[in-house]
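Title: Prediction job returns without error message
Component: structure pipeline
Severity: low
Priority: P3
Assignee: unassigned

Description:
Job completed but the reporter wants confirmation the result is attached to the right record. Sequence as submitted:
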Amino acid sequence: MPKFVPRGQEDPMSTLCRMVVDTKYEDLPASVVNYAKRSILDAIAVTIGGSAMEGIPAVVDLVKDKGGKPESIIPFYGGKVPASEAGLAIGPMSRAMDLGEVHEEAAHCSEYTVPTLLAATGLKDKVTGKEFITAFVVGQEVLIRIGIAFKSLSRAIVTGRGHGHCIFGGVAAAGKLLGLSLEELENAQGIARGMTQPQDSAMFHPATLMVRVHHGFVCQDAINACLLAKRGITGPHQEVLVGSRGYLGFAKWETEPGALTKGLGEEWEMINTMMKPYTSCKCTHTAIRGILDQMGEHDFKAEDIANINIDESSINWAVVCEPREEKWRPQTVAECQFSLPYAVATAAYDKEVFLSSYTPQARTRQDVRDLMTRISAREDPSLPAWAARINTTLKNGRRYSKEYIFVKGHPKNPFTEQELIDKFKKCVPYSAYKLSDGVVDSVIKALLGLEKVDNVISALLLPLTPR
């Protein structure tokens, strides 16, 4: 695999674009290919599970009402629409469960790249599994490296900023799949630069359906940027990422521009994502795991708990603990997904947090609401990102305290292949389109052997779509 380094005074985006255009499937290390297949399997699973959630049918109806050139399939609903419109429909499905993978610094990633690629498949007669894998890998790498450089979680989230960089990953993935030239891809990324913003956290406070729907806008814009570039529309090549006008310039903190190209082509940041076991914001996961571990280790029940005091890292605190009035009294599904006390109390009673945790009946459970009043939290900036310290006091006076960092799905505590298959099948009953066991097994087999698939549309999309 060649190493890509900046040439002269070029913007790092130009270096990243060379990596995207020049990388071939054969260049990818086996470890990267294997991780990519598991990431795509995970992303398809959560897309299946999110396909019928609140807001998704409305977005699909809008897309179908608009109509247009029949290019790309809308999975789970049927019909063909323009590729960019398919991106608008599929993107929110991938995020709705809040069960997709997250990078420790770049945040959500495959929930942008995979739906963009699924939507873009209709722009080609055939897409092979190797083409899909390669486009996914380079798209993830671009998105994650820019997120690292911007310090999207360690600095942006805690100051109310967020994920404007994600469109660059979508453009890289779609551009690779569509075979854009280097000039075209640089133009497409320049066009995308005009669509970015350091998205603030307003859509999370209180959490709204825009948390999932904005993924559709990103996928739609990424495909449109590529199509415009193919038609000759130009975009800036300089100061796309760095410089006074570059994307990193939005930051009010010190960024890390060196991360954009460090070891590019030899080191793959995309293998450092965290896959999620619980259907809630990643910032709740260490606390969920902590209370479940304590209950298992010390053999007590939710009814035995007097109170739980949680020390949270700054990232977790900013996303799922503030403002207190909102997080301790969530009402909607989205609000509950971003509430630390709701997630912890639900886990204590049900031993899991999944879609059944958000039904109207679940959201009004008195036992869960009562326990929430006995859960408190405070910010502890000394804790590592994502970490939580769970301090539990029982009604009999016993006390337990432990710090939790690497929950299941973290690169240091990864899912096994069978655990990912089990997670996939756990999502299936929530699909907007009923899937038979035979279809589920065939799709899983195709995803785990994706490099052998001759046609992604026939192997993955058509089985998930009503005839």
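Comment from assignee: result matches the submitted record. The chain is about 45% helix and 10% strand.
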